[in-house]
Amino acid sequence: MNITYRTQILQSDNKSVRQIVESTGFFYDYEIPIAVELVEEALKKGQEISGYFFVFAELDGKTVSYTCFGPISCTVGSYDLYWIATHNDYRGKGIGKMILEKTHKIIKQMNGRMVIAETSSQEKYAPTRHFYISNNYTKDAQIKDFYDINDDKVMYVKRL
């Protein structure tokens, strides 16, 4: 598997991000435009000013996975992992783990010391929670009924 990474955003990433996020089946319809909006914001303003940084994983020239992350305001070295998604056709091949490791290295180079990832407590997201734990994140908080009744926000932290 010949995976390459890039941090430069291309105009075509709007379409790639939409396709990746839609393919997963994990996100609500109203969440998909938000993923694309972050790409558009970073394209328009630049990653530094927008605060939205990206890593894209490409396999044979096709964008198959991406992360979006950024520094958390009013903190020193804390970063949010806003999005991590791998196209459904490429899941289970270790690409998510590889792009997450690459993202951690970049955050560390940006003087990051901590990454925070949030997800839902619903059963549908059990693989996501397992993914974070298997990548040495620790569950540091759970907010009951955050997204909806019986749908908690679960927060995972990776210390770099």
Condensed summary:
With 160 residues, the chain is an alpha+beta fold. It has helices at 13-24, 32-45, 47-50, 95-109, 126-134; strands spanning 3-6, 53-59, 62-71, 78-86, 114-120, 138-148, 151-159.
Radius of gyration using CA atoms only: 15 Å
Count the strands? Answer: 7
Reading off the top of the CATH hierarchy, the class is best stated as Alpha Beta
> H/E order of the elements?
EHHHEEEHEHEE
Structural domain tally? 1
Fraction of residues in H or I helices: 25-40%
The fourth-level CATH homologous superfamily is Gcn5-related N-acetyltransferase (GNAT)
Helix tally equals: 5
What does this protein structure show overall?
This protein is α+β, with helices and mostly antiparallel strands. The protein has a single domain (3-159), classed as 3-Layer(aba) Sandwich (Aminopeptidase). The protein is built from five helices and seven strands. It has a seven-stranded mixed sheet, with helices on both faces. α1 (13-24) runs antiparallel to α2.
